[in-house]
Amino acid sequence: MNPEDFKNFIAITASISTILQFLSGTLTCLKIAQNKSTGDISSFPFVSGCLSTSLWLRYGFFIEERSIILVNTVGASLFFAYVITFLIYSIKKSTVIRQFVGCCIILTLTLLYVQHKDNFEEAKKCLGVVCCIVTILFFAAPLASFFHVIKVKSTESLPFPIIFASFITSMQWLIYGIILKDKFIQ
């Protein structure tokens, strides 16, 4: 397999894995819809996912990388739908709204800052750093209920499909970032 074929293979498999990872949130949302309540499930993983995919979508356009654009277009759409599901079924709607507004502010400020940068490399670096920070939050977000798990001695509130899918997908994007020589994707 030549290097270009390998790059395409990793791009395709990483894209599929990522979309499957994003779709794993539907399991949580179906459970919420069936129960007609979010219970003690945090909306933060979904709100941070919406922010993360929106920022990475912009980064994809910035570096003109189709795989990043495709995956994050799907991701931003799904996570927005998940946030709406949380808003519908949450008894703490103000918390969901506050988290979402906060993420929208971060997104808007970041995009405005990057848009007005004259130096492409500087703008890319700034956006890449913000994407990485938000991605760390996104991957750590399912653990937001970790203290609750310890307190009640039950793992019911942990979204295991999202946690497992995140690990597999991370490894694929690490390889793809190495191939592209893009430290932010890595």
Helix-strand blueprint:
Layout: H1 3-23, H2 25-35, H3 44-63, H4 66-89, H5 93-115, H6 120-140, H7 146-152, H8 160-180
Helix pairs in contact: 1-4, 1-8, 2-4, 3-4, 3-5, 3-6, 4-5, 5-6
Description:
- The two termini are 22 Å apart.
- The chain is mainly alpha-helical.
- It has 8 helices and no strands.
- The protein has a single domain (3-180), classed as Monooxygenase (Up-down Bundle).
- 37% of the residues are buried.
- Keywords: Cell membrane, Golgi apparatus, Membrane, Repeat, Sugar transport, Transmembrane, Transmembrane helix, Transport.
What's the CATH topology label?
Monooxygenase
H/E series? HHHHHHHH
Biggest sheet, open or closed, and with what strands and sense?
Answer: none
What's the structural domain tally?
1
- Which CATH architecture? Up-down Bundle
CATH class: Mainly Alpha
Shape: globular
Q: What is the distance, rounded to the nearest whole angstrom, between the alpha carbons of the first and last residues? A: 22 Å
How large is the radius of gyration? 17 Å
- Fraction of residues in β-strands: under 5%
Given helix and strand content, the structural type is mainly alpha
- Strands, count: 0
Mean pLDDT value: 87
Number of helices: 8
Pfam families: MtN3_slv
Protein name: Sugar transporter SWEET1
InterPro entries: SWEET, SWEET_rpt
Family: Belongs to the SWEET sugar transporter family.
